[in-house]
Amino acid sequence: MQVFLTGASGYIGSSVLRALVAHGHEVTALVRSDQKAQAVRDAGGHAIVGDVTDTDVVRRLAHESDAVVHTASAADVDADFTETVTEALAGTPKPFVHTGGIFTFGNSTDISEQSPVDPPALTAWRASIEARVRASAARTTIVAPGIVYGRGAGIPAMFVGDGEHEVRLVGDGSQRWTTVHIDDLGELYVLAVHAAEQDGYVVAASGDNPTLREVAEAGAHGSPVVAESVDASRERLGADFADALLLHQEASGAHARADLGWHPTRPTLVEDLADGSYVR
């Protein structure tokens, strides 16, 4: 299968690229520089230097491909990009896999694909775009990842200590995060492409939901772990980002397992922080 991929040089997109290539797919990635193009080629893909806001290029690549995967999701990109792709793929069997996010569901101890939407300000822009994607005539699936970790990167890297300087929690650290390893997530995107569902939606969650304090204590490596007030977190990180990280969220990822055959196998976030890819 020929897959058109955006965000191939990013954290999620590079994992999706690796997984697609490993499953024998040919991947064409739209990237913004020669350096990023070389990274795509090194990973086994084909690269075109351009911009996802160029609707003519996006339309052509969508027509030329058997599937489209969009991981370069952003507030200033998604409206035009998704409209262009869904129009190009309308009425065809070609799947379009779009990227959402777990913050969409707000505070919840049992997030599923049927959960009500209650996003924080940080990601409120997603709701209208996702609604249009789901209402389109294209075969679409939205993948909503939990807190993505692994390979020493992602939001959890904020809580890796050096044994000396303090690791600050967001609030008191009692909130739970629903999590997914970056490499397990890449495999789920491939399954979503293969399923080619009509109006599919998948919560990408491993089922492991540690408290933020457990996360920070695993990553501290001898550094003191310090709680702070909500107001202090909002001042330090910015109100929108802090409010998203303060959400208490738990999910099992049951639909991805039962209906797509997904089997996450990588270490948990706490394990990876304690003695895996985040160890410096």
Order of helices and strands: EHEHEHEHEEHEEEEHEHEHHEHH
Please count the beta strands (DSSP E, at least 2 residues each). 13
* Strand order in space, largest sheet: 3-2-1-4-5-7-11
> Which structural class should the secondary elements be placed in?
alpha/beta
> What fraction strand?
15-25%
Number of helices: 11
The biggest beta sheet is recorded as: 7 strands, parallel
Q: What is the overall shape?
A: globular
The end-to-end span amounts to: 39 Å
| Percent range of helical residues | 25-40%
Mean pLDDT: 98
Low-confidence stretches: none
Organism: Curtobacterium citreum
Protein name: NAD(P)H-binding protein
Pfam family, one: NAD_binding_10
Domain NAD(P)-binding: 7-149
What's this, in brief?
This protein is α/β, with parallel strands linked by helices. It has 11 helices and 13 strands.
